[in-house]
Amino acid sequence: SQQGEEDPQALSIQEGENATMNCSYKTSINNLQWYRQNSGRGLVHLILIRSNEREKHSGRLRVTLDTSKKSSSLLITASRAADTASYFCATDNAGTASKLTFGTGTRLQVTL
Amino acid sequence: NAGVTQTPKFQVLKTGQSMTLQCAQDMNHEYMSWYRQDPGMGLRLIHYSVGAGITDQGEVPNGYNVSRSTTEDFPLRLLSAAPSQTSVYFCASGRTVYHEQYFGPGTRLTVT
């Protein structure tokens, strides 16, 4: 079964607005990662946050992690049309450590 | 560096045929994995490898075999193709499961 689930499934915003997507997962983790997928392409790594970190920034991206709630959020500030893509969270499993499983993704549409 | 390469890009098989999807990386990564992506299902882990000579099953391994005789290559074999295996297949590699994963461009497989 999927380890992570993203929410919402789809999000449509205008350029310049902020986009927030959430990820919930089921088991204890070592790290949580976020990836982007442009239509028909392979996934591209965005950011990794460790289980002992609560917040991390990279450019216009801000990721938070709440291990007590088993959830993470990805905030994209000042969205651009080029941010239109699907976004996935991925988690390892602190018990069976060698698997990296992905959620079902959030489809983000940024319109001009 | 070429990164992660996958061949072929597209393939059509008849039910019962077998084939091998190729995956290679030139980054000396120990960890490699195969995922399939179906609409609305996100990415599901098929098989993974933590190093040459070591492979293990993911979430959906039935109907697929893998081997890892070298660090660079991680082929995925479909033993007897079925229409349910129609999907887009992605190979990925990383230093370990705890690091950023690099994805190939994918193989779009149709089984008729």
Can you characterise this structure?
The complex is a heterodimer of chains A (112) and B (112). Chain A has no helices and 11 strands. Chain A has 112 residues and is mostly beta strands. In chain A, the strands form 2 sheets. In chain A, strands 2, 4, 5, 9, 10 and 11 form a 6-stranded mixed beta sheet that branches. In chain A, strand 4 (31-37) and strand 5 form a beta hairpin. Chain A starts with a strand and ends with a strand. With 112 residues, chain B is mainly beta. In chain B, a hairpin with a 7-residue loop joins strand 9 and strand 10 (102-103). Chain B is globular. The A-B interface holds A 1-2, 30-31, 33, 35, 40-45, 48, 88, 90, 92, 97-105 and B 4, 31, 33, 35, 40-45, 48, 50, 56, 58-59, 90, 92, 97-106.
Give the H and E element order of chain B: EEEEEEEEEEE
Number of DSSP strand runs of chain A: 11
The radius of gyration of chain A is 13 Å
Question: What is the element string of chain A, with H for helices and E for strands?
Answer: EEEEEEEEEEE
Largest sheet of chain B: 7 strands, mixed
The biggest sheet of chain A amounts to: 6 strands, mixed
State the distance separating the first and last CA atoms of chain A: 37 Å
Supply the helix-strand structural class of chain A.
mainly beta
Question: Main interface pair?
Answer: A-B, 25 and 27 residues
End-to-end CA span of chain B: 36 Å
Q: How large, in whole angstroms, is the Cα Rg of chain B? A: 13 Å
